[in-house]
Amino acid sequence: MISETIVVPIQAAYKKRWAALFVLCMAEFIVIMDTSVIGVALPAIKSDLGYSQSGLQWIFNAYVIFFGGFLLLGGRLSDLFGARKIFMWGFVILSVASLLAGVAWSEASLNAGRALQGLGSALIAPSALTLVLTKFTDPKELNKALGFWGASAAAGGSAGVFLGGAITQWLSWHWVFLINIPIGVIVLALSPSLLLKGTHRKGSIDLAGAVVATAAFVLMVYAIVAAESAGWQSAQTWGLLLLSVVLLIVFVALQKKRKEPLMPLSIFKAFNLSAGNIVMALMAAAWIPLWFFLNLYLQQVLHLPAFNSGLALLPMTVTIMLFMVIITGKLMAKFGIKPNLVGGLLALAAALFLFSMAPVSGSFMTHVLPASLLGAVGMSLAYIPGTVASISGAKPEESGLASGLVNTSYQIGSALGLAVIVAISSAKTSVLKAGDMSDVEALNGGFQTAFLAAAVVSLAGALVAAGAIKKAPQA
């Protein structure tokens, strides 16, 4: 199946490919973990640095905005200068940025560190996926490699929660960032011997396109986040949203005119690629709010300590890792991309619906464990098929671009989905507080609404996948 849907350069089997895959999966784990490792640490960071409840999401969004905004540029640089070189430069930037975030003394310094972390990750993610695709040419091996890749990505999101809890409780929140530095040193030390040096291609870099696309993304997310205080009908909110749309139109116009654009629009002629990227954005817009609000529910409603909160999500992490490595590849080979993608998103929607009924007096065994395991199975079923669909039909010389595009879709979905659902949750909490509810009841009511909104998003993703993804040949 995968050999039918992904085009990769033909080359002899690389002897160190499995050792190289370990390094690349480690890199993907770290990149995705950095989106979630701060989850359990949020209350401690809020207390130390004085963030507001709604302002906390900027610790996440500062990372995701720069990550998503520069992924296309990272993919383009990977195609032009070689994936290994860009991969290593990404880790240099990520390590320096992690030091800044780890010693942050204010909201501004932490947000700046997180933004630079996102920039480094934007270089790492597309180049790492390109290296995976080019090192495994046997279809069965590639299928297995993508299973490990998907497991490392999805597990990184969940494991970050557990690790964040342990680090926050036993050390301090500063170490959820500082831990990246020794890992970065290890990856940089192993990369020259395990990752083959890539070929250089002639071409130019569309910096204007990268700046315009990132500016549009930043303005759109900021408009949604700031709407809570400015008002949804305010001139500021609508002005920023309008400006972001104008910048997106300018970006498309630039891509049409440039001889070597950042994102050749012709790539969207591959139907599954286009539909797959939409589905990946919707998947992220449901999955990221799940762990974000589940962390807050565990600590602010059930009042679990940071470590216990992370431990509560360990079954989800283990399920994702085992399911993706052992089961997902076999199910894809038997049933194809579409059934697994649709089924996974429906399972994720069902899990979110269960979370939307979690009460103030909830328990781990009844209201957290069943839904979290169902959500883990859903994500495990959907993530790899969604990734495969999103890079289907890309030309060999566009492998970095396709890798950057699918990561961009996921991160844009993450940031916009979280921004919208946080705004919905905050508005619901404010309405409930104005009534006769206690603070914790009002807060939980907002969380329930957030889970329900995310369930609708996941259901929408399943409907898009069912209607737009074309059935691919099976292995």
TrEMBL record:
Intracellular or extracellular location(s): Cell membrane
Keywords associated with the record: Cell membrane, Membrane, Transmembrane, Transmembrane helix, Transport
Record has Membrane as a keyword: yes
Chief localisation class: membrane
Residue ranges occupied by any Major facilitator superfamily (MFS) profile domain in the UniProt entry: 20-473
InterPro entries reported in the protein's UniProt record: MFS, MFS_dom, MFS_trans_sf
Gene3D superfamilies: MFS general substrate transporter like domains (1.20.1250.20), Multidrug resistance protein D (1.20.1720.10)
Lipid bilayer topology: Multi-pass membrane protein
Transmembrane feature ranges: 21-44, 56-74, 86-106, 112-134, 146-167, 173-195, 207-225, 237-254, 275-294, 306-327, 339-358, 364-384, 405-427, 447-469
One GO cellular component, as annotated: plasma membrane
Classification via PANTHER family: BLR6921 PROTEIN, MAJOR FACILITATOR SUPERFAMILY MULTIDRUG TRANSPORTER MFSC
Protein name as it appears in the record: MFS transporter
Provenance organism: Chitinophaga oryzae
